């Protein structure tokens, strides 16, 4: 990564802004450099925001961003992976809580983690689906490929597949998609099997039931069997003989056992053959966040090293660290924008700032606080603190401010009514029915 490459990336990002492009690009630079800001108006106090603070709200109200062109720019500048290695991408959803925003349209119920047991872990707001390139080892150095809002008329699984469809033609064939248990849907398995990628690894719930291939016809009267012996993770007696086992150490030198069963299927989609993997970690505490036994389904090329595929699932936790950086440092959930379209533009601005910090990692000297460990790998926030010193050398493609004079204000006698209220959408959307192959 050189300054010329970074500068080219910035100019291509600027070309993706269709309206209010100068104010939007000033917002990106201000967000990257104003590390002490705690709200959206405080971001405008950066030297890189050349306009008055009220212009930032006008930019998100009137601005337009070409998301398809922006997606192509993100993929074009994707950090290079190691030779002879696969690209690992993760997809997950994150909620933006707006429980009291009665004038915000298209809000739905969102789960809230880590609440006391006496509280109901549900709030209301918007949900966003994010596709990121996962680093190795897992850390907050994720690179965002796409970010879209999940509206109330669709599901997270449908949005995930739509994003993969939009990205798959531009991604290398050696790409592995990693999903958590929230995407444990047979409809999504069938759709992912059509993608021109290496495969998809999805974490399973213990009550999922699989079947082996049907036995040969016995010659007796009646229809032949369509399914073979059952394989259910929760029932150890149904496991039978696996197709392969691997035992070794993980990246931290701890004992791990990986077992897999090939060519199994579910009754709802018998034509789709998948591979079921079991990962046993004796050192785990066997709590909800640290299970001793985990189950996965692999949909894709079975000639790959299945043990390394199963062990690679730990990369997915880097996406959680990336979300934390976006929300705590880049103020993703802070602005109180009224419409979902305005917040979608703000989410894209956060993604652009996030990726610029990742791309600047190799050319910016991290700025550490006196109490921060100098022996550890630098964090995105530490690199972000040093961007302000290098940014003057790059300049900005945004045009200088043009003063428009004073506004005439409202005409006398104009009455401003109350903003329209919108109810929370409680209806849960359903996945489309499976179409037999």
TrEMBL record:
Residue span of region Disordered: 215-249
UniProt cross-references to InterPro entries, sorted A to Z: IS701-like_DDE_dom, RNaseH-like_sf
Coiled coil: none
Segments of skewed composition (Basic and acidic residues): 224-238
Domain annotation Transposase IS701-like DDE: ranges: 13-264
Superkingdom classification of source: Bacteria
NCBIfam families referenced in this protein's UniProt entry, alphabetically: transp_NF041680
Protein name stated in the entry: Transposase IS701-like DDE domain-containing protein
Provenance organism: Ktedonospora formicarum
